[in-house]
Amino acid sequence: MEETTFIVTIEVLGTIAFAISGIRLAAAKRFDWFGAYVVGLVTAIGGGTVRDVLLGLPVFWMVSWHYLAVTGLSLVAVIVFRQALVKGFRTLFLFDAIGLALFVVVGIEKSLSAGWPMWVAIVMGVITGSFGGITRDILINEVPLFFRKDIYATACLFGGVVYWLVAMLPVGVIVPQIACAVAVLGLRIAAFTFNWSLPILKVDPSSLPDE
Predict the structure, then answer these.
(1) How far is 199 from 209, CA to CA, in rounded Å?
(2) Phi and psi dihedrals of 115, rounded to 5?
(3) Which is higher by pLDDT, 1 or 96?
(4) DSSP assignment of 13-59, as one string?
(5) CB 27 within 8 A of CB 40
């Protein structure tokens, strides 16, 4: 019961963080309130929806209305505190990084609870953390962070590996979850601070065949 409560708690916190990141970005694009809510909702539930469909589980937001309500409260927060939340890239980065870290943990835990092996759980952690952001960026006509040189999906994968390694130690069930979230968040912050990125796939245009 304690573990289930912990997972639900971080799922709600992740929903708030991702919803605010989506709504904040929609506000910067001058969406109306309803459009901003939709973008925030898709950001918050997109990855978890894909995960639950792939795992054959009931889609989490269709079981409980709380996630729709939490997104609505996130919209209200952005409206009330728009000067603090809308301006600046760092605000978007912070909420996106927090949501990413928490949702990777949720994806891994739900996969393991459903009886899937660790490697599947890590993949589901990456999907849970990143697919909402992919959908958000598509809706606002931006190239998704997932496909850029940013350390994004790589951070999810790194967090999943850290979870796996820590889980093999004689520690409590919550310790791997915390280690995973810290690893994802830490790598995202370090990549942002030190301008780390993956190599870009470059192709000489002259080497391409003529159409």
Answers:
(1) 24
(2) 95, 10
(3) 96
(4) HHHHHHHHHHHHHHHHTT--HHHHHHHHHHHHHHHHHHHHHHHTPPP
(5) no
